[in-house]
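Morning F.,

Quick status update on the modeling queue. The single chain you submitted on Monday has been processed. Sequence for confirmation:
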Amino acid sequence: MIRSLGLKLIAIIMGALAVYLFYLVLLEPVESYTMGNGYIWGMTLLIIGALTVWMFSDVGMYNNWVDTVKMIPNPKGLKMPALFAAFKDMDTDLGRPWLGKVKFVGGKSLIWGPNPEGEYIYAYTGGLTSDIKLSMNMVPGFITPPPGEEWRLDALEEDGEEMDVDDEVLRHRFDAIGLMTDLAERLTVFAQDPDHGDVDPVDTGGTKETYMFEESFRWTGQDFYLFDAQGQRQMKISAPLPCKTFHISRADDETEIFMLTKRIFHILPHYDLYECGTKIGRMKKRLVFHHDHFTADTPYGKLELRSITATISANFKVTLDGRLIGTIARQLTPNLGNLVFENFVLTLHDPKHLVLMTAMGVMTARELRRDQMAALRTLRDDF
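Structure tokens below.
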């Protein structure tokens, strides 16, 4: 509580200084252009700093803003040996946890993984607060196993030779993002009451499937195709000009099975969703500052498309009633197609939601292109 109040006080002071600089810029004569720019830069940095400090003052706010790191209150001051003893037999997508060293973290960490894509999750205590920090990383070189346990990293030597797609692409699937949510919830309960924590195996949701979502050049509209891991075309998405309505059909059948239409005359983007000609919901963008966030009430539950923050490039997760059904990650392999077009890796947790995930891929591509065009217009106006 004292730490939280102290950080909020610091944020308020920084905000007050920013307001003072704003006053100097508007009401006081500025001696030179350089000094005026200095005031503006200082005001901007103080505002960013105040927001950052305020965010760190509240665990709930921090966890809402950041997806790859979670702060977990630790009122009983639990240490890593106690956490390891409780969770060591808990099976997850990344295997059972083990104690090891992570670069830049003092002391031992509780580590889940890594998997063949290099993803791992680790928990540790220490630092300025007593909170348990839960973090996701994709740099396995930061991990040091205990002596005699080098086999912990054997998964990194597994390859994807059975896949007919580029292995580098497969390194952007974010398999760990769903597990982060489960682990954060369980660690939160355990930290509050160690005698009643949930250390049962985490439901992995079955085997995950990977698909390539790729844009195809077309003069009179926009086309996308969905390919499975063997490179076989599974879905076709087609939109005639002005690219407002997208028709989804299976590759071996031109019959439309899903359609999404972007509604106009809305301040924030809206998309109507149709399955076999029947409207099943309307995806609306929510006015939040820390994520791109769309929601819709559908017959299958509450559908959410939400960006994943603190990751490389643009990545999203899709949930139904809070349960992760897949992730959408931009393809980062350096080639002309990925530079020019909106190409993604779709990781599907449940095969029955393939069509719905394809529709979310279309929405992601359209919204990212919209953001790019807005950024280009802003850049043009600046010059």
